[in-house]
Amino acid sequence: MKFRVTHQDPHSSARAGVLELPHGTVETPVFMPVGTQASVKSLSNNELEALGAQIILGNTFHLYLRPGVDVLDYFRGIHGFMGWNRPVLTDSGGFQVFSLSKLNKVTEEGVAFKSPVDGSAHFFSPESAIDIQRSIGADIMMCFDECTEYPAAYDRAAFSVGLTSRWARRCRDRWLEGDTEKQALFGIVQGSVYESLRRESAEALQELDFPGYAIGGVSVGESKEEMQAATGWATAFLPADKPRYLMGVGAPEDLLAAIEKGVDMFDCVMPTRNARHGNLFTRYGRINIKNARFAKDGLPVDPDCGCPACRNHSRAYLHHLFRVGELLSQRLNTLHNLYFMIQLAIRARRALCSGTYTGFKTAFLQDYHQK
Amino acid sequence: MKFRVTHQDPHSSARAGVLELPHGTVETPVFMPVGTQASVKSLSNNELEALGAQIILGNTFHLYLRPGVDVLDYFRGIHGFMGWNRPVLTDSGGFQVFSLSKLNKVTEEGVAFKSPVDGSAHFFSPESAIDIQRSIGADIMMCFDECTEYPAAYDRAAFSVGLTSRWARRCRDRWLEGDTEKQALFGIVQGSVYESLRRESAEALQELDFPGYAIGGVSVGESKEEMQAATGWATAFLPADKPRYLMGVGAPEDLLAAIEKGVDMFDCVMPTRNARHGNLFTRYGRINIKNARFAKDGLPVDPDCGCPACRNHSRAYLHHLFRVGELLSQRLNTLHNLYFMIQLAIRARRALCSGTYTGFKTAFLQDYHQK
After folding, report:
1. Is B91 a residue of the active site?
2. I want to staple A274 with a disulfide (CB 3.0 to 4.6 A). Which of A209, A219, A279, A314 is the partner?
3. CATH 3.20.20.105 domain residues, chain A
4. Could you report the predicted ipTM of this complex, rounded to two decimals?
């Protein structure tokens, strides 16, 4: 993996960069659609490419349970299995063993948990999380971390940082035993809402010299202000020449704020989850397509949008599809919302490359919050 | 509407033809995907066109309830509303007022029924069924009929034929008041499993001189033998120079048998419904993709198939998507099954045009029933 910052914003920490990965080049800032179970909800690979998706996410926890490591090995990883040829990033399963498995027990060694699918017993260690991600074969793997819940007292958050750091070392050691060129490994900064802990975490990981760093333990219930502060504390203590990935964030305004703090990569289920609820992004803020006022509205969801839903269909048709529960509703809504987020990152990048990021951000937010 | 038979099979009543409609030309025999609520389950219009869909179905009962006539009028019909530019056929709602509305009351005047959506009271008459179909704006409209349930005693079936004939006259009269070139109207033959009644119904409708004729009251629970007999009795008494449409049929073997009896047009929800249950057509019969033996199967569903699911994905991936309940599962399965049926009709047509229908049918069934 190679990363270089090509443009630095003179007024903030925002930057544009290029990330070279085994399955292709990713231009940053970038929004990465989430394909938890080797599928981005309802979309085909062709559609994802047409939306401008440069890299997608897979989920180690889910893929380990189904289809399982033996199937992934048989198809030599997720690329062959799902037919996606561009880069993939996998999270480590650290977040999901806590959020999705009700029965879990954390020890220094790792986490014992019960499968939410069939109740069977499993164990993830830093080493096994790397091994599973080797089978998945993503271009970027993540360290197995303990994601700190919110709110968390200082001592609790400090313990979490310590454990995450010790696990990060074990992940790195396992990673170094294999082909480090084929798959990169990112460390994950924890530390909750405490500046000293975010710093401690960032510095401890930096000693391990990862190809890139992620900021975890955000978007877990804290306020937007707390999230921005945590992001800023982490990026301030991370090396400038390595890519930074803010996990699970977020709304358009969060994306732009984090870019300004020097974040390069984003993922979030919000565009797909909102799509399911008829909640659609537009230049002038969010609308809910189920609202009766759209029943005879012949305009596209967002007249400025170039996505397949907006190019081909009216608000009235999308309103109807949502109301009658047609599958096409979720598909068109997902296409629209993902296009919006992917293009937002692309537009931010373009502004960074031409030195106009502040103006771009101000203009975007002015429109977006107009209503 | 113009229809001409271009090739007549020397060994059976099978024929190939060309149907010219306001929104385009349809080559027969043809399989028409069902888009009940102005959407063919999960598919985009581009995908439907790529599958070879020449004409799709809309459903008067559903479209009347949602989005409603005022919305359809506002968008000048279903084509503008859903963005589909090729021909559309609408059924009359006759079948659904009985099958989907538990509370319904039939009189000579029409049918009073309660909406399955919100329980509100509605009334369909032959005249209103035509008026609603005018608002939908399909290239082909259907007469409002009383679809005879199965089993039905002779007297009950005879009453149904009589009522359907009287309603057909009223439908025709209403149709003649409007633009008969813009939308054609088909009569529907009833008569259950009774040859004399099928004949009586076909002859009564023929006196009204419709542009085309449908065979209704089939695929309602009768045996395949009864269905084929009913189809043969109806086609025998219908004019050879008008298109014939067998409603709600069916399986691949039913399609080929009906073509041999002189049927030109087909629709069926089976390909889409089967897709939802993981039941997929292949050259060598049906398979269920949820079967564990497909977990590591790297072949396409049908190696001979040119559909997007088979061109891009393995059985193992489709098995996984079905097992984890991903939306893409239903979409890929639907693409595959619809392609199979659409292409079956296209291949039958090609055989008819080259005078090899019997051989084609024999070879297809030999493969299809091999297992």
Report:
1. yes
2. A279
3. 2-268
4. 0.97
